[in-house]
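Good day; I would like, with your permission, to put a structural problem before you. A protein sequence and the structure tokens that stand for its backbone fold form the material at issue. The record follows directly beneath this note:
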Amino acid sequence: MVEMNLDQPESKDGRDLLKSGRGDFLFSGNLHIDGNFSGRLTIKGVLYLGQYARVTGEIDATNLVCNGYLAGNVKIARKVIFEENAVFSGTLSAAEAEIYKGCSLGGMRNIGRVIEKDRTGDKNIRNKSIMDIISIPDEIVFPKEPR
């Protein structure tokens, strides 16, 4: 595993920003990805996947906020948040999940506590493990990157 050292990182809202990459990385701190990444990420902190993120591989992180595309095996020690534009496919293990209306989740999930939300503040809390919430659509349309 390669330790990622960002001496002069770009940042977004105080988080290190990775636009694209591939490989096996160990990172300590908060990382924001808003591009393509494939490989294995071990994050001791919060991993943010922006609207234009397309991430495939293995993720092991303390917390995850996903608003892009994520496919693979994902293990989150504490909390995962799937925002409206999130598309997930694979296996997920997390202690807690916050799931916003509009996201697409497919695959196997083992989540201790689920909070379903919409942006109006309404929420529905489930305190048991679930294996399937909603399925991925046949066709996924990605948003265009800003110029």
Summary: Residues 1-9, 127-143 have pLDDT under 50 and may be disordered. The chain has one domain: 13-126.
